[in-house]
Structures are given as C-alpha cells and as structure tokens.
Write a structure and sequence with these properties.
- There is one protein chain.
- The protein is mostly beta strands.
- The chain has a single domain, classed as Jelly Rolls (Sandwich), CATH 2.60.120.
- Helix content is 10%, strand content 52%.
- Strand 7 and strand 8 form a beta hairpin.
- The longest helix is centred in the first third of the chain and has 16 residues.
- It starts with a helix and ends with a strand.
C-alpha cells in the first residue's frame, strides 16, 4: 500500500510540475562526473531568499540513465538546521522508468518540501548525499534543486 501511494505521489508531482511554471527563485543542477556518484560526494547548493512573506515548494531532481541498477533511491538532505532522509521510486514494479525521458536520460522530480517557510532573508545552503549501500552509485548524471514560490506556479 505504501508503495502504491508513493508511486501515485510521484506521478502526481510529475504531472503538476510538467507545465510552464512561474515563480522559480532558484534552479540549479550539480553534474555527477562519469555517472559515478560516490557515497562521500555531496551535491551542494547555495541560494538566496529575499521574500519571507511566502512559502516555497522545493523539488529535488535526479537525472539518470538506464544503467541505474535500482528501482528506488535514498537521499540524505541536509541544511544548517537538520538532516532529512527521503526515499522515492525511479521505476515501477515492472521496471519501467517513472521520470521524463529525453536524449537518453531520465529526469525525475521529487517533492522535498511542499510548503517551506524561510524565517530570514539571506543565503542558504543545502547538500544532498546518496544513501544507497553502494559506495559508488552508477548511472546518476545530475542532481538538481528547484525552489518555487507557492501560489506562482
């Protein structure tokens, strides 16, 4: 049941975020050299928040190839205040990729925060590390972060 709910949430996120969007305040990708993401390598993002009167939606993007060997992925997402562990699915039970396919890559958006409030203006930092058992995770090409003002999508 939990798996079905996770898949439905992922599909819903893909559909709701696939159109033209306004209100993007940050969008950046960190390239993974040679499609080999080491367990100790962090995807790091530095961004500025200038409007604290609104909440934000935060999306993590995973770009991968068909060489990625698993159905799911675990990530450790850290900022200066806390660390979250998230799991999501990149493929369904039949092995079909769930993300958008283009040019040999699959891009999967993952809703990380639906309504994030930043108490202060200024610089923020977020780092992402994979939480899989492999010391080197193959088939990952990029990790991205997108921050969107709620109500302006």
């Amino acid at each position: 049941m939990k798996r079905i709910i996770s898949i439905l949430l992922i599909v819903g996120a893909i559909l709701s975020f696939s159109g033209c969007r306004r209100g993007i305040v940050y969008s950046q990708f960190c390239s993974i050299p040679s499609e080999k993401w080491g367990i100790d390598e962090l995807a790091q993002f530095d961004y500025s928040i200038i409007d604290t009167a609104v909440d934000y939606r935060m999306l993590i993007y995973v770009r991968h190839t068909e060489r990625y060997p698993y159905q799911n992925m675990w990530l450790f997402v850290s900022d200066s205040h806390h660390c979250d562990t998230i799991e999501f699915y990149l493929a369904d039970d039949r092995g079909q990729w769930l993300g958008d396919k283009h040019n040999g890559f699959i891009e999967m958006p993952v809703l990380f925060e639906e309504s994030k409030h930043f108490p202060d203006t200024g610089q923020y930092h977020l780092s992402i590390q994979h939480g899989m058992r492999d010391s080197v995770l193959r088939g990952i090409t990029d990790i991205g972060l997108e921050i969107i003002k709620n109500g302006e999508e």
